[in-house]
Specification:
Largest sheet: 10 strands, parallel
CATH superfamily of the largest domain: Glycosidases
CATH class of the largest domain: Alpha Beta
Shape: globular
Helix content: 40-55%
Radius of gyration: 29 Å
Distance between the termini: 63 Å
CATH architecture of the largest domain: Alpha-Beta Barrel
Number of strands: 18
């Protein structure tokens, strides 16, 4: 039997892929059209189908962690209408076996399978006999990851449920597979939602969750910066850490300890520590800076048992422009930066933690990188795929003997929906280059700049990051794009996959005319100076943009109507993104239409034969279902959808900051409607029509 690797099928057509990976079965249902998994195992061969008949026996040793893995599997099977059978009744069975047991060794010998050293920590083997499937591993983590693969092999429900039988030898390409979550730009997730994140990440073999803190972790020693209702408490941390351990996830806290500290330094109590007045960067020359970092780290060490702390230290743009100006002038920016990072390392030595730091600033001083303590871990980040690969982001650290993790992004922030075409290509290339150059980890990021991110929108990039860091080499993007909807949403129709493609096309359309699908474009007034410039850019592609967005909405709604669809919250969040794309197009279209219509009215104001058409045209602008009302209602609809999505995952803290922007824009268009209505009333009463500029329109209409 030849066991296929993902590399061996990359580039094959769909028909060949099907023939290579699936044996002919007696179950010709559409759900067997392909063997799709996230991540794809390192080696896999489909061998047949095991009919479950609505019940199954799940056996494990008495080890607490293996027992939890068995319970996790039973819970997933129950969702499929398959109940766990007890006793010695004959029937289909799944058995979780440790490698060091005689039974496991005998099964591997019978099937001529080897368990090599690279598989020891987290690897596993799946192999089946006529009426059973065995999950064999050396550790509880390996058993757990084997279970996660088994969960993706189930098709159908109840008495019609079956499990695809496979032979799998699998292990991770990278030891550390992490997901960062920004908790400091508005959204702070509820504890229940963080538990959902943990469960979901673990299902795709992620083993690190990293909450990002600037001022949203409560400290006893420094309680002032943590906003009431908007920070994780010690009790929250204790419960989440305990919850994550059973899913084999380590929680690595990131507490910014150099830059990105504006929400701390704006308080007068800490003002003397700021490089610039109420800035964002700690001044290295201030003794209180290290004292503050030490106080934080002591409490972090008590709360988080992780062997790591992430100190951030990225984008210290203000360094040298305030208190350290003379030091930077005399010593150079790189030396002042590196020296302070080394001081932080020395200060935190008593905590016995390995320190992660962002690599962007250190890259500017590659010679000084070699002076950093070699027990630190560089997290080198880049969010766009450069020509020529990622070597220059990785080699300065690996060449210096510093352990390195590569950090792409599943959402760079500020986007109305993740730019998945860019992000998947970046993840693919960065992780593959990292593996080639000896990086030991992948640290995927999600940023929520300006507080408008919804985490449920990010699963596409998060899951591809999970796949890329587990699989060896360059993970196949087409393979993932064909797998996502079926694996994550139980959508065999392809609607979800196509909806994602539609939104990628919307991103590409805007980028092609020099625009980007950022929140700023969503809020932009089409009659502002910038709005007029962007109107010229967007109008040639606005029809196609809206069609892509509306196609996505239709596909998502069709997917949600399926009986057994999963992760509906993520589909709702995806639809929110699609509706934002569509509204951007609508707003610029209607802003232009109003401008042209009023200019027509003004040009013909003295033509008595045009009096009735002028009044009629005015109703298109300001009447019931007029353009001003359409734009107001567009903001109102998306406001309501956004609020629902926010409260499904985040605490109410900070939400009103975004709601205020919706209300402001709705009031803007309500006010404009009144202005136009007043202008028309004046025209009907006096025959005088205010000029376009008097009613707030731009001086010159943009040309198509």
């Amino acid at each position: 039997m030849k066991i296929l690797t993902p590399k061996s099928v990359t580039g094959l057509g769909t028909g060949m892929l099907l023939l290579c990976m699936l044996s002919v079965t007696a179950f010709p249902q559409p759900s067997f059209a392909s063997l799709v998994m996230i991540p794809m195992p390192q080696q896999i061969q489909a061998t047949g189908v095991l009919s479950l008949h609505g019940t199954i026996s799940i056996r494990s040793c008495s080890d607490k962690e293996d027992t939890f893995a068995a319970q996790d599997l039973a819970s997933k099977l129950h969702e499929y209408g398959v109940n766990r059978r007890t006793g010695d009744v004959q029937g289909p069975a799944i058995e979780l076996l440790r490698l060091d047991t005689p039974r496991a060794r005998k099964i591997l010998e019978r099937h001529h399978l080897s368990f090599t050293s690279v598989m020891h920590d987290e690897g596993y083997i799946l192999v089946g006999d006529e009426n059973a499937l065995y999950d064999i591993a050396a550790t509880s983590a390996g058993i757990f990851y084997g279970v996660q693969t088994i969960k993706q092999l189930i098709v159908g429900r109840g008495n019609e449920a079956v499990m695809r039988k496979v032979v799998v030898r699998d292990w991770p390409a990278m030891r550390y597979r992490g997901q960062d979550d920004d908790l400091s730009n508005g959204q702070v997730p509820t504890l229940d939602y963080q538990k959902k994140q943990i469960r979901t990440l673990a299902s795709y073999k992620i083993n690190i969750y990293s909450p990002y803190f600037e001022n949203t972790l409560q400290y006893t020693s420094n309680p002032l910066p943590a906003p009431p209702g908007g920070a994780m408490s010690r009790d929250d941390v204790e419960e989440l850490v305990r919850y994550a351990q059973q899913y084999h996830i380590t929680i690595i806290p990131e507490q910014q300890a150099f830059g990105h500290l504006h929400h701390v330094l704006l308080y007068e109590r800490y003002a003397q520590l700021s490089e610039t007045p109420h800035g964002a960067v700690l001044a290295p020359g201030q003794p209180g800076s290290l004292q503050l970092i030490g106080q934080w780290s002591q409490e972090i060490a008590q709360m988080f048992p992780s062997p790591f702390i992430h100190i951030g230290a990225d984008e210290t743009d203000d360094l040298g422009s305030g208190q350290t100006e003379q030091a930077v002038t005399e010593q150079g920016l790189g030396k002042v930066y590196i020296d302070f990072v080394k001081q932080i390392h020395q200060k935190l030595l008593p905590q016995h933690k390995r320190l992660l730091f962002w690599g962007d600033v250190a890259l500017n001083s590659p010679d000084l990188v070699k002076t950093l303590p070699n027990d630190m871990i560089a997290v080198t980040w880049q969010y766009f795929p450069p020509e020529g690969g990622f070597d220059r982001w990785i080699k300065p650290f690996t060449d210096a003997g510093i352990e390195t993790w590569v950090s792409p992004s599943a959402n760079r922030g500020e986007r109305i929906y993740p730019d998945n075409d860019n992000d998947l290509r970046t993840i693919q290339a960065f992780v593959a280059d990292g593996q080639r150059l000896g990086a030991s980890g992948m640290f995927n990021t999600v940023w929520d700049d300006h507080g408008e991110g919804i985490f449920e929108q990010n699963w596409y990039g998060v899951l591809f990051g999970a796949a890329a860091s587990w699989q060896s080499g360059a993970s196949s993007i087409p393979q993932f794009e064909q797998s996502y909807g079926q694996i994550f949403h139980n959508d065999a129709s392809g609607d979800v996959n196509q909806a994602q493609i539609e939104l990628m096309q919307a991103h590409l359309l805007l980028a092609g005319v020099g625009l980007y699908a950022k929140n700023a474009l969503f809020w932009e007034d089409p009659w502002s100076k910038k709005g007029q410039e962007d109107t010229v850019r967007i109008l040639p592609v606005v029809h196609e943009l809206r069609i892509h967005a509306e196609n996505a909405i239709v596909l998502i709604e069709q997917a949600k109507s399926q009986k057994n669809i999963r992760n509906v919250d993520a589909l709702d969040a995806m639809e929110l993104g699609a509706r934002k794309f569509d509204f951007i197009g609508q707003k610029f279209q209607q802003g232009q239409e109003i401008l042209e219509e009023y200019n027509y009215m003004y040009a013909e104001r003295n033509n008595k034969s045009k009096r009735d058409p002028i009044v009629g045209t005015s109703y298109e602008i300001t009447g019931n279902h007029g353009q001003c009302q359409d734009i107001r209602e567009g903001y109102g609809l998306i406001r309501d959808l956004f609020k629902v999505a926010w409260l499904k995952e985040s605490r109410p803290y900070w939400l009103d900051n975004i709601m205020a922007q919706y209300e402001m824009n709705m009031q803007l268009w309500i006010g404009r409607s009144i202005v136009f209505r007043t202008a028309v009333d004046e025209f009907e009463n006096t025959g005088q029509l205010p000029s376009p500029q008097e009613v707030g329109l731009p001086v010159v209409s943009p040309k198509h």
